């Protein structure tokens, strides 16, 4: 799974950064699939919901934003990336284009939700083969609303799905509390691993080494995996994202060492990700 996760992350970079304008609908059984929250009325239009999400309390309070969503009928769209490497599952209001008859969906995978081509996208999840990852929601909505996308993907999949969750605050969390010194971390690893984990968290070479390289990351594995698994259940955002996947998928989230070797991700997470096994 670690090697698959690493390969997937390279593909994800292409899927989320490539310039795109629009793509065709796929599968009438998926496109336009509705998740009814309440009976549709004149007051439950996309314009009404957009207004609620653009002004307080809906613009800054996750609970108020979720309550606003609860009064509206939503739709799941499947948006295939033009490169063919991934499909993006999108949550929209049922009234947003193409509500009926239109052949294209405008979506920019590299942009935030709630702006530009993504103005009307409430949540998104990426799928490649049998792996889901890259969950996003429009601020200030919580990740739980994306569970609808996970269920839609699982319903359409011919095989069981798994999920990846990034840990972008892992290094900062470890540094802030010098967590490599925690008794439980040391019990699960050894002195060399904890020393290497400290170097990974700080982003500096170990004593006696000139670079922070593959040897240090390899030596850190027992301690870094233990740190990642501890962090996964202390970081509310990560916990909520894992919970959204668990709404529809079976398994247990475990830390995967060096799942993503991108230099930027190594600097913030030491390469670790949470993987549903």
Give an account of the 3D structure:
Residues 13-43 have low confidence and may be disordered. The chain has helices spanning 2-17, 46-54, 62-69, 147-156, 170-177, 183-188, 191-202, 214-219, 221-232, 236-246, 263-269; strands spanning 22-24, 33-35, 74-80, 87-93, 104-106, 121-128, 131-137, 162-166, 253-256, 273-276. Helix content is 38%, strand content 18%.
Structure class: alpha+beta
The residue-averaged pLDDT reads 86
Number of strands: 10
Strand order of the largest sheet: 2-3-4-6-7-8-10-9
Measured between the Cα atoms of the first and last residue, the distance is 8 Å
Which overall shape is indicated by the principal axes computed on the Cα atoms? elongated
Separate helix tally: 11
Q: What fraction, in percent, of the residue positions are helical?
A: 25-40%
Mind summarizing the main beta sheet?
Answer: 8 strands, mixed
Supply Rg. Answer: 20 Å
The low-confidence runs, each spanning 5 or more residues with pLDDT under 50, are 13-43
Strand residue content: 15-25%
Task: Tell me the series of helices and strands, N- to C-terminal.
Answer: HEEHHEEEEEHEHHHHHHEHE
Short structural summary:
The protein is built from eleven helices and ten strands.
Topology readout:
Layout lengths: L1 H16 L4 E3 L8 E3 L10 H9 L7 H8 L4 E7 L6 E7 L10 E3 L14 E8 L2 E7 L9 H10 L5 E5 L3 H8 L5 H6 L2 H12 L11 H6 L1 H12 L3 H11 L6 E4 L6 H7 L3 E4 L1
Parallel strand pairs: 7-8
Antiparallel strand pairs: 1-5, 2-3, 3-4, 4-6, 6-7, 8-10, 9-10
List keywords for this structure.
277 residues, alpha+beta, eight-stranded mixed sheet
């Amino acid at each position: 799974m670690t090697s698959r996760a690493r390969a997937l992350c390279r593909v994800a970079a292409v899927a989320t950064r490539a310039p795109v304008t629009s793509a065709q609908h796929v599968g009438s059984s998926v496109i336009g699939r509705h998740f009814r929250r309440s009976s549709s009325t004149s007051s439950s239009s996309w314009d009404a919901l957009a207004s609620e999400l653009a002004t307080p309390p809906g613009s800054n309070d996750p609970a108020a934003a979720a309550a606003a969503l609860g009064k509206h009928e939503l739709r799941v769209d499947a948006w295939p990336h033009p490169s063919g490497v991934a499909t993006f599952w999108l949550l929209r209001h049922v009234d947003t284009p193409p509500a009926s008859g239109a052949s294209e969906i405008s979506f920019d995978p590299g942009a935030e939700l709630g702006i530009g081509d993504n103005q009307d996208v409430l949540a998104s999840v990426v799928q490649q083969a049998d792996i889901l990852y890259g969950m996003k929601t429009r601020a200030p909505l919580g990740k739980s609303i994306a569970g609808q996308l996970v269920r839609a993907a699982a319903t359409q999949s011919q095989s069981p799905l798994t999920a990846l969750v990034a840990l972008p605050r892992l290094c900062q969390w470890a540094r802030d509390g010098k967590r490599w010194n925690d008794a439980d971390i040391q019990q699960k690893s050894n002195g060399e691993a904890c020393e290497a984990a400290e170097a990974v968290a700080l982003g500096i070479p170990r004593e006696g080494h000139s670079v922070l390289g593959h040897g240090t990351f390899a030596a850190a594995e027992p301690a870094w995996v233990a740190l990642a698994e501890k962090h996964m259940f202390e970081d509310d955002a990560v916990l909520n994202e894992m919970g959204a996947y668990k709404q529809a998928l079976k398994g247990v989230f475990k830390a995967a060492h060096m799942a993503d070797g991108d230099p930027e991700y190594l600097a913030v997470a030491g390469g670790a990700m949470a993987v549903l096994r």
